[in-house]
Specification:
By secondary structure, this protein is of the alpha/beta class. The protein has helices at about 1-15, 30-45, 70-80, 90-100, 105-120, 135-150, 175-185, 200-215, 220-230; strands at about 25, 55-60, 85-90, 125-130, 155-160, 165-170. It has a single domain (about 1-235), classed as Rossmann fold (3-Layer(aba) Sandwich).
Length: about 240
């Protein structure tokens, strides 16, 4: 976890993600990224130059009308001394049964974000940390370029004025391989996704494409990430 904490600390310094006195809600889906992010932020409190509080919010979309088991996430939070809140929602019902979305990911993400924002505010948090890793950054950049014809990505930090809350992504310098390794080494219990379209999305197709290109041309993904940072779009520029 030391290497992951190094990536997180670098992101905090580069993008000014966490300040003294912040209360950060970590959105934990139960996947590897959010579990590793939570563990890293909890561990980093011991030596960070700023003091901050943590809380964990887990949203259950209740896909297929069934509640998922997040007891392993609760146990992790208890071991780390982090407040845990589980919120059951009807997002799965809305997306797949009521709206019958042919491309459900966008609506699902929007509904989850709204519920997460409200829960974080109710818990007295001023920031929400999401577990997007470096590979997620590159994939999003490529999807925006090839499928929407625009240059851009989600930002490492975004202030939402309507909610008066800031979204941060402290894991953006951590390659997915390092996240998987940290998850395995620290015996973190991943909660299997119950999403009906898991592993069949546009993001998965993009991930497969990038993996193939990286295999053919080592450094392909790194050059894309460097280009994004050099462009300076969406808050990705280097510090002066």
């Amino acid at each position: 976890m030391q290497k992951i904490m190094g990536y997180v600390r670098k992101a905090c310094q580069e993008f000014n993600l966490i300040q003294n006195g912040d209360k950060v809600a970590v959105g934990v889906s139960g996947g590897k990224d959010s579990l590793v992010l939570l563990s890293a932020l909890a561990g980093m409190r011991r030596f960070a130059e700023f003091s901050y509080d943590l809380a964990t919010i887990t949203l259950d979309p209740c896909f297929g009308g069934r509640e998922n088991d997040y007891s392993s996430v609760q146990r992790l939070c208890e071991s780390l001394g982090v407040e845990f809140r589980l919120i059951r929602t009807d997002i799965g019902e809305i997306v797949f049964n009521i709206r019958k979305e042919p491309n459900p990911c966008s609506l699902c993400a929007n509904l989850r974000r709204g519920a997460l924002h409200d829960a974080a505010k109710a818990m007295g948090c001023n920031k929400i940390a999401l577990g997007h890793n470096k590979d997620d950054v590159i994939e999003t950049f490529i999807m925006n370029l090839f499928r929407e014809g625009r240059i851009g990505c989600f930002a490492p930090k975004t202030y939402l004025s309507r909610k008066d809350i800031t979204m941060i992504r402290p894991l953006v310098f951590a390659p997915e391989g390092q996240v998987i390794s940290a998850c395995n080494r620290n015996n973190l219990e991943v909660v299997k996704s119950a999403c009906p379209v898991d592993k069949t999305t546009t993001r998965q197709q993009t991930k497969d494409f990038l993996s193939e290109m990286e295999h053919k041309d080592k450094g392909f993904k790194l050059r894309i990430f460097s280009a994004l940072r050099k462009s300076g779009v969406d808050g990705w520029g280097y510090r002066e």
